[in-house]
Amino acid sequence: APIDRCVSPRDLGYPLKAFITVVVDQHQLEDVIAALETVTQVTQVTGLSGAADLLIGVVATDADDLYRVAGLVLAVPGVER
Q1: Quick one: pLDDT band at residue 35, thresholds 50, 70, 90?
Q2: How many CB atoms lie within 10 A of CB 72?
């Protein structure tokens, strides 16, 4: 059976949690998700219907780090905004 562990991001040095919504080129959705898996600070990716396509949970050390992480997410090919 798989082991599931829940570790507090705060305990790992990430006291800030936030969500980022993005619009994705639908033809690149699987590639976008695969790329987001490589961003250490991404904790979850949820599909949405409506104005945005994905809700991305992230953690950060502070506001400046959150800005940097948001930039990493927006730089993923296929993320339109």
Answers
A1: very high
A2: 16
